[in-house]
Structure formats: C-alpha cells, structure tokens
Amino acid sequence: MKQPNQYVKPSAHYTAIVDDGNPFPSGSIRFNTADVRVETEAATDVSAFVEALTEALDDYLNGDEWRQAAIEHTPCEFRPAGSEATGQQIITMADRSVSFDPRKNWDNQTVSKGEVLAGSVIFTEPTDTALVISKRFTILDHNLMAGFTEGSMHQTGEKLLRDIEHDAAGKIAGILSSAPSTESVSETKPTGKPVEVAEDLIDILTMNINQTVGSSLSDFVVLLPVSLLAVLERAAQRAGVEDIESLIGASVQPYSGTDYGLFLLPKMFTSLSYREGGNGDIWKIQATRNGAHQCWDVEIMTVVDIVANGKVKVKLTADGLQTQTVAFPMITNIKLT
After folding, report:
1. Is the sign of the CA dihedral 123, 129, 132, 133 positive or negative?
2. Distance between CA atoms of 256 and 102, rounded to whole angstroms?
3. CA distance 205 to 216
4. How far is CA 232 from the centre of its chain?
5. Which terminal residue of the chain, N or C, has fewer Cβ atoms less than 10 Å from its own Cβ?
6. What is the pTM of this model?
7. What is the Cβ-side half-sphere exposure of residue 299, based on CA atoms within 13 angstroms?
8. Measured in Å, how far apart are the chain's first and last C-alpha atoms?
9. What is the per-residue burial (b if ≥16 Cβ within 10 Å, else e) of 239-267?
C-alpha cells in the first residue's frame, strides 16, 4: 500500500495528466532516470556531445584524410615543428617582361623593366604575414537539453568544417590580394543565366593564364568567392558533368568574406605551409567548460604560412654582369567589375 508523501521512482514510461483548469485536461511527461535515454530517443548529456564532437574533429583534421583533401584544394606542405617554410625553385616556362621599382646600373642608367627569359629560375619565400586560423564557438547546455541525435551531430561537424574552410580561404585571399607576387587584372563581371556566366568565367580564366608558371587551367587552383559556387554548380548540372572541377578543368577552392575576386594559384608552387605541433598534429582542438554561462567553449586553430612571394633575377646590363632580384608575378588576381 502506498504511503502518503512516499517517493515513487519514475519509470521510462511514466505519464502524468496536467490539469490547468481546462475542462479537457491533457498532456504527458516521459521520464528516464538514466544519463542517456533509450535508443529510440535522443541523448541529452551535453558533455557527451562535446566529447564526441571534439574527438571526431580531432580524428579528421589531424588524420591523413584531411591532409589529402587539403592538397587537392590548394598547393600546400606540412612541415615538422620548429622548421621553416620550404622555399621552392622552378624554371620559367616562357619569356616574361616584369616591372619593378626603378634601379640604377653601373652606367647610371635607370631600369624599371626587365626581361625574364624562359629557363630562368624563380624561387619563392613566405609572405610577411602568417595566418592564424581560429574558429571558436559556444555550445549552451539548454540548447541540447531537448536532446540530440547522431545525425544532428554529424551535420554540426560538417557545417563547422565547411565554415572553417571557407573562412580560412577568405583570410588567405586577403593576404594574396596585396602580396608582391600577385598580379591584378580587371574584367567585366558576367551576367545572365548560370550556364552563360560559367562559360564567360571559364573564358576569362583561360585568357588570363600566366604562361610562365602554367600552360592550361589544369595547372592552377582557382580561388573564388563562395557567391559564385551555386552558379557554377548549376552550370555543371546543366552541362551533365559531375562537379565544378570537371566543368572548369581546374581545382576550385571557394572562400567567404570580402570579395577579392578570383585567384589563379599555380600548382607547381606550394602556396600554404602548415606548421605541425610537437606531437605531430596540425590542428589544436580545445574544449573548455564555461560555468558562468552554463556552456562549453570549443576552439579549433592552426597556424599557416603563405608561401607566395616569388623572386627572380633580372639583368640590369646587357652583358648580364649586373643583376637584381625583383618580385615575380606568379598569382593572377582577376577582379570582376
């Protein structure tokens, strides 16, 4: 026999009727005394969600799969802790005239333009600015009290990775836009249907290939604003090809934020140099409990150098005895106006 005020442990199927004065009282409450609900319902442990999410991000970002994806999207290297970014050397494929700050030769002649002949050696250096990629977000306890599923966690992780990729690419575009080895050109912005815009963009890219570091679009990675992504994807669907890369004939990396135009990055040069930590990991994922706001703060970060300063020796005298090292334009920035 039940005693007055006796506590009764609620079962997984405990039901209560709510009487709020309405002539038709209704409502039900389901209780579960375990940390995680039964398989048919969502989990509610916020700490479990944060732990699973950070572990999954760490496994992917510091694994071979991410490194392979990074190489496919942008020319890059992964260097051991404490080492410097690797400068590279490559032979120019075609003659090229370059302009530079006026220099005086031994004959007191002022030279502001010189010829770089095919066969000359170009070498690269890191830019003056390194990039710290940092993505911080907060997971509030009350947002997950209603529960979460494996699918929702998977969607959250994918969205985070996409945001990090596009944000970081936008920061890189900003650095490249003012790099000494970036050559800017202006073109009229295409208009019309997606297929027409895509065809015009491909023509613009093709006409602005830097022949000294590549001979076709397949020799470059195209860094483009994310606003053009949907247009090109639709054009690829209409053309019956698998993806944007198949449509353009080059690797594509979208970026978000300020629109700096399109960039043609030569695959023959490493553009990005990621720094490994002492444990060999490139990315650092850190979760911190924020008791004051009843939430978890999660930060994902890494440091990358931009190896995009091209240098080449130019003759200041006809006999070639006096040379000067000047900036060489390797990256083409196409601004759509």
Report:
1. negative
2. 37
3. 10
4. 18
5. N
6. 0.76
7. 10
8. 84
9. eeeeebbebbebbbbbbbeebbbbbbbbb
